[in-house]
Amino acid sequence: MKHLQLPNPTLRRVVHSKYIDIVGVILVAAICFYRGFHETIYYQGGIQFGVPLSGFSDYISKGAFPIGLLSTIGAVVSLLAARMIVKQQNLGNWIGVFTTVNSGIIDYLFGNHSAIITYPLTFIIAIIATKKWSEGEQVKKADTKYWLLILLAFIASYTLVFLGFYWFGTTIKNQFFKHTVAIIFGISLVGNISTAFKYEQTFLTWSFYNLAQIIKNVIQGNVANIVKYVFYIINSILTFFDWRINGDVKKTKGELG
């Protein structure tokens, strides 16, 4: 009885490092507080910004919803869940189920009414991920099912995004914007589906997603978010090579018969 030898143990140690977890949490929390997300509330049917924490109790007693504080907590928890998935720990998927609900509610309250039809799909995929990983799903190469899932993901993304614009009366003259939203949502769906079935390409997909977010934030001049997504893309690239080279955690810790 012996353990399988990792092809690149150094890469795995780096990817699984707790120091990356700590840096990620500090970075995301700092950016959220720097941008004042925690000072945002949903009150009397609208968003109010710049509400100091000292005044939260008064607003909450009047029925306000601390949307910014929950958004900040959700961002940190989502980062930790993503890091657990990097380490192939199913707890990350379970946490992802709850953070999807939290993100969907917050996104909806911030005015993205399409969230009511897009987030349920992400929620279902997160549930599938927890089930597949609990059944012992292992990292594998792309197969015919993978490419079919990609096709279905983009069909679903275009359908839901364009239905969302139509049903909720969002008027967008620039059609390029609609396609951009649909493509980015499609990439995120592919990333979530790839995660559920543990394909090697999972974090390559997330690298493309993070690159798209970097480009968007460069155009918007949002330096804080650029820093955050640079961290995410480095994490994604390292994890892609770890999954591709070192394979499944259970397999490399398993036994040779």
UniProtKB/TrEMBL annotation:
Superkingdom of the source?
Answer: Bacteria
Query: A GO molecular function for this record?
Result: nicotinamide riboside transmembrane transporter activity
Q: Where are the transmembrane segments?
A: 20-37, 63-82, 116-134, 146-168, 180-199
What is one term from the GO cellular component aspect held by the record? membrane
Keyword Transmembrane listed = yes
| Membrane topology qualifier | Multi-pass membrane protein
Q: Where in the cell is it found?
A: Membrane
Q: Which UniProt keywords apply?
A: Membrane, Transmembrane, Transmembrane helix
Q: Name one Pfam family in it.
A: NMN_transporter
This chain belongs to the protein called Nicotinamide mononucleotide transporter
